[in-house]
Amino acid sequence: MAIKKTELYSSLWASCDELRGGMDASQYKDYVLTMLFMKYVSDKYKGDPYGMIVVPNGASYGDMVAAKGDKEIGDKMNKIIAALAEENDLKGVIDVADFNDEDKLGKGKEMIDRLTKLVGIFQGLDLSANRAGGDDLLGDAYEYLMRHFATESGKSKGQFYTPSEVSQILAKVVGITKDTPQDATAYDPTSGSGSLLLKASDEAPRGLSIYGQEMDNATSALARMNMILHNNTTAKIFKGNTLSEPQWKDADGQLKTFDFAVANPPFSNKNWTSGLNPENDLYNRFTWGIPPEKNGDYTFLLHIIKSLKSTGKGAVILPHGVLFRGNAEANIRENLIKQGYIKGIIGLPANLFYGTGIPACIIIIDKEHAQKAVSKFEEGDENLPTVTGRPIFMIDASKGFIKDGNKNRLRSQDIHKIVDVFNKRLELDRFSRLVPLDEIAKNYFNLNIPRYIDSSEPEDLHDLSAHLQGGIPNRDIDALEHYWQVFPSIRATLFKPDRDGYSHGMIEASAVKSCILAHQEFKDFATRSLLPFKQWIPEAKLKDLTCKEKAVGDNPKDFIFNISENLLNSYANSDLLSKYDIYQILMDYWAEIMQDDVYVLMQDDWQAGNTLRELIAKKGEKLKETPDLIINKKKYKAELIPPSLIVARYFSDEQDKIDALQAKQDEATQSLDNYIEENGGEDGLLVEALNDKDKITKASVAARLKEINVIPAQAEIQEEQKALKQATKLFNAETAAKKAIKEAQEALDLTVFNQYPKLTIDDIKTLIVDDKWLATLQANIVAEIERVTQQMANRVKELEERYSTPLPTLTKSVNDLSDKVASHLKAMGLEWSV
Question: What is the pTM assigned to this prediction?
Fold first, then answer.
């Protein structure tokens, strides 16, 4: 059975728990990622004479397993890793972490136990065959760990990782196309863990030739391992300071130039001149100006421009300050704009990055289509030159994100929208604009995005006349025109024209939503809004997903890309609904459920659907998974089809009977609770039945009843006996109801258990595709339809409530109430004059 991605991720993250305490996340990432690398290459290449990694005798993960419990386990693990590194020219790459460091891993038995558990966690994973076509399971797991390590490392140590979502944007806007050849070069002068370069390479159909440089030794090692785990062994990552000691040079000693460059340099580097004399730079990188001594943001941008071919293109992440800061940076910015190097700017939300919370932007460079600026003076206006040249496409994407813990994160729909808008140069209100160079020049080459795009929400102005005289301003109603185009009759139902420029509401504010939902226009809209989804279903060919026939789904990443793009395009012209919101519904479900399902199907085909896996906990440990079925005390997990789907399709009558029994139990429980509440108080007939925890239970009632049975009959005793007997009867009724449910549920569980092996391939396809995937997606789309109309209803309700009572009416009401109070006070003999 294939490893599900989420299960692999959780196992890997569990390994981190073995290292907590002795070191922080910025350190233990080196240990965990080294273990992942060792396990992967051992599973994948041991015994393979043609493998891209040679695993010599004594240098495999199996040798680590043999060292479990050994008093010299740390030293032996170091030697095993060193042997693999020596054989494959990976010294300084995979042998950075010291597995014999007592300060980090503990002394004596503490170290032995910790490393033994760590080896054991990875030992249980089989990573040899878990790669469907084009799917980097290990690469994705590496990415998952990098994100978590960056999150835990904090601001000072999380800069080795660029969030995957941002990396995707850079890769998709830098200019790589389906025609980009494999020998095209991609460069990152501050490569970190290499994620940016890998994302860029993924955009080319056959990958790119990767070059990078990273100053930090440990991070450079992470990048090399990352390349191998992503099946990109030819990538070249050098160590060293890019600014003072650039490693990539041509034969003449000048900087090597590349087709593409992507980078996320350290923000506002205060030590960029270390080892560098910018006045006499050997590589002529500062032709357009020298950045401030204490702020190196433009240094990396200038280095990248110099490192690009004349046809080269780049995308660089920089803090927003580079767009508007003055003095030396203003001079550089003006020169670059006049050269026509800047193709576009994308403003990102704040708090996306692990090294800082400040907002950043992406500057897109295009040397191939650079157009130098030309200034000329209009006749009679010599003080205001007109500047012509390359316009700059700007996007303000600062509002599109979700909260993710203490960080913000771009959603799939945010990424898709940014990339669509930029690459198609779509001008959207309050989001994007192609800004003429002349307008930028008139702003003294300041590129601060809010100067050119106002992304703020329009102010919701109150109407004084409406507050005084009543009525709802027509301008507020007209502002909902995009709704009225779809629901013209609903507008007439909700509003009726009043005096000039105003209308009055026809429906009470509290009834607006129900009125809309009950209207035939809404019902037609809801039906119409599901049609693109239903038309998409046969196009998606979900039931053709199989690895054996190499059909639609032989590559999971291509599979989700194709079906998600088709769904997005299906909703391109849908009324009111955003195609990106619908797209997000699919992408969220993919991340939560569908990705794991598809990956298992790619590995094990459709028969995996009738697989039930027995859960067995190791001695002294609890189960890590929640069982789906318990049969004869054995616990089982369904790989793809949860029992509820089997029940719904095949055993709904049995479930109805259980639901009926549950209703009886609820009724019995409610009757019992009510009776105890009525009679269990301080003066109640059951007060003597309270146990030592001040609770009335079946046992405490039985004990009290036994106790008073020997007491001579008295009126009050007889009343208590009667109450106790009634309580006993109610307890028995609840117990019987619970027993009936338990027996019925156990019988149904056994029936379901026996149904799994009877499922045919067609049954499995129906249960997974129709009952699980499509039913969930449709329910979520219906919820999105209702959410959109809820927005309209909320606004209408707000307007109704805002202007429902004009000021004169309120004043009269206050006066009337004041007169009533004064009259009551006078009747009570309380009267005064002012």
Answer: 0.86
